[in-house]
Specification:
A 4-stranded parallel β-sheet has the order 3-1-4-5, with helices on one face. A two-stranded antiparallel sheet has the order 2-6. It contains 11 helices and 6 strands. Helix 4 runs parallel beside helix 11, helix 7 packs antiparallel against helix 8 and helix 7 (112-130) packs across helix 9 (158-164). The longest helix is centred in the middle third of the chain and has 19 residues, at 112-130. The protein has helices at residues 6-15, 27-32, 43-48, 50-56, 69-80, 92-98, 112-130, 138-154, 158-164, 167-170, 176-189, and strands spanning 20-23, 33-34, 39-40, 61-64, 86-88, 104-105. The protein is of the alpha/beta class.
């Protein structure tokens, strides 16, 4: 299924209460702003519990992340595993908020994308400054640039995956069992 825009997603949620909104961002991102009633199941947990998600999901799933990339990766994995009624919010929470749709706000935290930009920029800047004393340090900047290029070409981000595991991004925690139970519960109630 192709991505849907924020207005279509909002109409879908309002018209069909059985639509499960699954937010695949980190718990910290989810805690800062999320759609009312959304289930937080971070992308790494979707991957780790793929068979259970496919077996337990009842009804249509609407996947959401910050910009749409992680949600699309989750959709691909779920579709490849046999779950067909899955949509992705095109533009993610960025598009949802820009459209003026309702959001539950919590403590503001940096998005994973912003953290990646900070980490990559800091690595490049530090290695360039260090190369004034240690010329070989410029290779670290080149490695960071190569990693960012590879991330763009493959639409994956190893740095983002590593940053998602930091305590800061897990501060709010996620109860995977409760999230999976909500998926399972929707199947039995529908």
């Amino acid at each position: 299924m192709s991505p849907i825009d924020a207005a279509t997603a909002r109409s879908l949620i309002e018209a069909n209460p059985d639509v499960l909104v699954v937010d695949v961002r980190t718990p910290a991102e989810f805690g800062s702003a999320h759609i009312d009633g959304a289930i937080n199941l971070p992308l790494d947990q979707v991957d780790a519990h793929l068979r259970r998600v496919v077996a337990d999901a009842g009804g249509r799933l609407l996947l959401i992340c910050q910009s749409g990339n992680r949600a699309e990766r989750a959709r691909t994995a779920l579709s490849d595993a046999g779950l067909s009624d899955v949509a992705v919010l095109d533009g993610g929470m960025n598009a949802w908020i820009a459209a003026g749709a309702p959001v539950n706000r919590g403590r503001a935290r940096w998005t994973l994308e912003r953290q990646v930009r900070l980490a990559a920029g800091s690595i490049v800047l530090t290695s360039i400054v260090a190369s004034l004393w240690i010329p070989a340090a410029v290779l670290v900047a080149a490695l960071a640039g190569a990693g960012l290029t590879l991330a763009a070409l493959t639409d994956t981000c190893a740095m983002g995956l590593l940053l998602a595991r930091l305590p800061y991004n897990r501060a709010a925690g996620v109860d995977v069992e409760a999230a999976l139970a909500r998926l399972r519960g929707s199947r039995t109630s529908g």
